[in-house]
Amino acid sequence: MSSQTLPTTNPQPQAQAAAITATPAFRAFLSRLSSTLRNSLSQRRPWYELVDRSSLSRPDSLTEAASRIRKNLPYFKVNYTILLGAVLAVSLLSHPFSLLLLLALLAAWAFLYLFRPSDQPVVILGRAFSDRETLGLLLVSTIFVIFLTSVGSLLISALMVGFAIVCVHGAFRVPEDLFLDDQEPANAGLLSFLGGAASSAAAAAAPAVASRV
């Protein structure tokens, strides 16, 4: 009787993924990201304050509209950030190809460079790539995906729509009944909040990047 060879699966990709997710840098990134999200959501204002129709009125002038926006941005910064994220999500979900491209790009950065163990080189078609070569390939891929496909225009248009919604609401929401907490600075607006969140994510990934420079 002839022996039959049973098909076997190659565990190398699964082993590499497990090794990446087990790295201290990846665990630190997830921990910092989780902590940042919990802290940010704890500052979210009740949604009924955002949609209270009795507090909505048309501004009498552009100066008044700008003043309302400056006052509403620090107060509703977390709610506005969630709205921006929702607009981005809807835009990406309505364009599956762009969503797949963006997810593939983010996964490539995470698993091929940021959180890849330093003792495991990137091997493509039997050729091992150094960290510098890997970084160059990722930068070229990022430029291609963002500027030479529909991803870049989709992200920009979604952000513009999101900021337009935020500005319209901020201009029509009467801020007289809104008071910032004592520990919150008055100039802590939406952009500074987004910058702080980005800084936290960058700080979590900084050790992994510094080890490759």
TrEMBL record:
Keywords: Membrane, Transmembrane, Transmembrane helix, Transport
Transmembrane intervals: 75-93, 99-115, 135-166, 186-210
Membrane topology, from the record: Multi-pass membrane protein
InterPro entries, A to Z: Prenylated_rab_accept_PRA1
GO CC entries: endoplasmic reticulum; Golgi apparatus; membrane
Superkingdom of this protein's organism: Eukaryota
GO process terms (BP): vesicle-mediated transport
The UniProt record lists the keyword Membrane: yes
Subcellular location as annotated: Endomembrane system; Membrane
Pfam families registered for this protein in UniProt: PRA1
Described purpose of this protein according to its UniProt entry: May be involved in both secretory and endocytic intracellular trafficking in the endosomal/prevacuolar compartments.
Family: Belongs to the PRA1 family.
Protein name: PRA1 family protein
